[in-house]
Amino acid sequence: MKKIDGGVTAPKGFKAAGLYAGIKKGGKKDMAMVYSEVPCRAAGVFTTNVVKAAPVKWDHEVVYESEFAQAVVVNSGVANACTGIEGYNCCKEMAAEAGKVLGVPGDAVLVASTGVIGAQLPMDIIGSGIGKLAPLLGSSREDAHLAAEAIMTTDTKPKEVAFETVLGGKTVTVAGMCKGSGMIHPNMATMLCFVMTDAAISHDMLQKALSDDVEDTFNMISVDGDTSTNDSVLLMANGLAGNKEITEADEDYREFCAVLHEVMTELSKKIAGDGEGATCLFEVKVLGADTKENAKILAKSVVTSSLTKAAIYGHDANWGRILCALGYSGVKFDPEKVDIWFESAAGKLKIVENGVSTGYSEEEATKILSEEAVTAIADMKMGSAGATAWGCDLTYDYVKINADYRS
After folding, report:
1. Which of 6, 48, 153, 304 could bridge 10 with an S-S bond, Cβ 3.0-4.6 Å?
2. Per the annotation, does 29 bind a ligand?
3. What is the mean pLDDT of residues 171-186?
């Protein structure tokens, strides 16, 4: 497989558009559309929050009940969450309007919303935006970029990635875009993500690939400990690559899963590194755990520790906070066997061996912790299982952003 410069228009047959419709203040793009020239198999994973936004309910029905999906319409600025039956009817209206202008059934249109919870969608603006998006649909790199920009809220940058591989002698592309910066915490998807592929694959295998992969990607990121009402990952496959349809867990399926994993991992890291107010991506690797599940619990405990996140912001090698977070995770281990390292582009430094300080250089540790991406590695010395979690540092700006979010 190889990484290519691309977004959701990289796979064959997909078009995209993004524009300013008038939902947000200040003229920032706020609506996007992705369309496939042919019907797609669709898969999805959704928030585990009991409070589910209307688009989550609509998309669940499309993924599991509709014959196919062919388009996605996204708005940013208003989440359409906690909006009752009116909010659900807005989803239905959005899908119907998009279906009308695209010439596809309304129940083949997925919808997504992100932004302020509790407000009803301005359907006059939404309807007008859909009408403007359809004729702008294109397959260029710029078209994909405009769509990725239009789904942002407090994100500081658009998040896109694309990979190619070969399945059965045919070039297959998997590409995605996502948004997420705050209200990010492991418990399924933790943001909005849209992945497109031209692979030919059955619905069951597509859903299995997606559901399995989120456990090691989007379920392993955290910014602030809050699981959104709107979390959704949608995966659409139109089959235009021409490979033999994947219907079982064979070699082609494993290769497809490997490419999907690369796309999902990169998007996960882009979200974690762009956490609200963040100055760096904070990665936590746990090695030597007794089970994979315990490795995940340990890694998540460290990456979500507010004290550890604050220390990372201060470039302070306060390893006691890491050991403490491991200790309250609920996993049983011997603290007098744990080794800890810090690593970044500036180098790698062992700071703890068998539960005590190595007498490391604070100056060298600060240098390593001053990079844009920092990794903490913990070897538990219990077994051979491991896991990786991603988060970010905790800064003053996180509070500022969320104190002023609605105003």
Report:
1. 6
2. no
3. 79
